[in-house]
Specification:
ATP-binding, Rossmann fold, Sigma_54_int_dom_ATP-bd_1, Beta-Lactamase, elongated, alpha/beta, Helicase, Ruva Protein, domain 3, disordered N terminus, 23 helices
Length: about 475
């Protein structure tokens, strides 16, 4: 089973450093580079398209770095750390963690942080006049790691906003596609708030029966209606007293209840069904939806007065396809969870992680979790490949990596490589929502080079069309 290091310096780096400053490498046990980020390419002065074809020993030989703790970690099968100097004379603190299976190194994860002595010293000795540096600014990154993963800049920014929001009692609306983790973020805000000792009551408004929704939310007195419990019942809003009420899919709340919820928020009081007594209630409200509430108010399907009462702090969670940096860490987290649940020691290989990275994830984090569970369960059987092939969606991509379709092809190597490059560039463009600058940056090439390649692919697919266009252009 992959082993997770509990090395103190590694935890300090991963919790307190800004992800934009991190240099990240993933290598195999021989030091061959498998994955890296753009910051790594810039820091050591090697273009991305070349970097992923090199070995750590070659980087030392070429003078890009003076030493490699990745190689030491692979040799000693333990976490190694130390200072590394680049060709530009910049100093990095490197921490290399081997992922082991029965003491065999599967691959190594290396984080490097620029000028660590200055950064860590500043963090460990905060100025009393700016108490937010250690207590507030970085607390949003030192999360409960069993529940939340934030490697991407987008998610780290969201967590900083969420932490700031947690220090207030203002209403929060979480926007995002289904499966992006809105309830997880709501729980984080609750845990970081002064109400963390109170209850966290989560309600999916879409599942509330319209006939019973009011009784569920507000409770009722004994004898309030036929079928009511003899002793009466406390409502879910009242149960959140002193804590946080999370209304998921709030756009589905019936309009009659929207008016009553507004009254609760304005007056801080509720009245149970069948009662004439108002009860003072103190709670914090977090709402979530995958719909545009502003547009719904214009269409008359959501009360505008409730919208403007809630519309204080808005947080938009990006879909997983827009933060691919989180995919690997989320997959490893789910892998640990399911290995523990099923008492297994399954590993994710590089081909599977690559397939994960390239997939669009329409179901977001929820879909990723399910696919990792399928992968783990498949290893219970003697024929895991057959199990995965019987699955639909992402599981088929795992069982057959993208390059597999080219195996056995009869085309020349040059043509096959062109086709593979075209498919890979198209997949990156798709992940980047066809933003050329972003795609070029991820591919490690100039934007002009990317445009030329796309044009070349188009000509290769439709040579006659382009030939006729060229003739027309050349006609007098």
């Amino acid at each position: 089973m992959p082993q997770k290091s509990n090395f103190p310096m590694q935890q300090e780096i991963s919790q307190k450093s800004n992800s934009k400053d991190k240099v990240i490498f993933v290598t195999d046990q021989k030091g061959n580079l498998l994955l890296s980020n753009t910051k790594a390419s810039i820091t050591i002065g090697v273009p991305m398209e070349q970097l992923l074809h090199l070995n750590m020993r070659e980087l030392i030989r070429n003078g890009n770095i003076n030493t490699s703790y990745t190689l030491q970690a692979a040799k000693n099968r333990r976490v190694e750390q130390g200072l590394v100097t680049t060709k530009f004379k910049s100093e990095l603190l490197a921490v290399s963690t081997p992922i082991l299976d029965n003491n065999k190194v599967l691959y190594l994860l290396t984080f490097c942080v620029p000028t660590p002595s200055q950064n860590l010293a500043r963090l460990s000795t905060p100025d009393l006049k700016s108490k937010s540096i250690s207590a507030n600014r970085f607390r949003g990154l030192a999360l409960c790691p069993e529940n939340i993963v934030a490697e991407s800049d987008a998610m780290k920014a969201i967590l900083r906003i969420a932490y700031t929001a947690s220090q207030t009692d203002s209403p929060v609306i979480l926007y995002g596609e289904s499966g992006t983790g809105k309830e997880v973020l709501a729980q984080y805000i609750h845990r970081q708030s002064n109400r963390s000792k109170g209850a966290f009551i989560a309600i999916n408004c879409a599942t509330l029966s319209e006939s019973l929704a009011e009784a569920e939310l507000f409770g009722y007195e004994k004898g309030a209606f036929t079928g009511a419990q003899a002793q009466g019942k406390i409502g879910l809003i009242e149960a959140a007293a002193g804590g946080t009420l999370f209304l998921d899919e709030i756009a589905e709340l019936p309009q009659a209840l929207q008016a009553k919820l507004l009254r609760v928020l304005e007056a801080g009081e509720i009245r149970r069904l069948g009662s004439c007594v108002n009860r003072t209630i103190d709670f914090r409200l977090i709402a979530a939806t995958n719909k545009n509430l502003k547009q719904m108010t214009e269409e008359g399907t959501f009360r505008s007065d409730l919208f403007y009462r809630l519309n204080v702090i808005n947080i938009v969670l990006p879909p997983l396809r827009e933060r691919p940096e989180d995919i690997t860490m989320l997959a490893m987290k789910f892998l640990r969870d399911f290995n523990s649940k099923y008492n297994l020691s399954v590993n994710l290989d590089i081909d599977t992680l690559t397939a994960f990275y390239r997939y669009d994830w329409p179901g977001n984090v929820r879909e990723l979790r399910n696919e990792v569970e399928k992968y783990v369960i498949s290893n219970i059987q003697d024929t895991p490949q057959l199990f995965l092939e019987a699955m639909s969606g992402m599981a088929k991509n795992i069982s057959q990596p993208e390059y597999a379709k080219f195996l056995g092809a009869q085309a020349p190597l040059k043509e096959t490589m062109r086709q593979f490059e075209e498919q890979y560039i198209n997949s990156v463009l798709k992940v980047c929502n066809f933003q050329m600058s972003k795609a070029a940056d991820r591919l490690g090439i100039c934007r002009t080079v990317l445009y030329r390649k796309i044009k070349a692919y188009s000509i290769a697919r439709n040579p006659r069309k382009h030939a006729s266009q060229t003739q027309k252009q050349n006609q007098p």
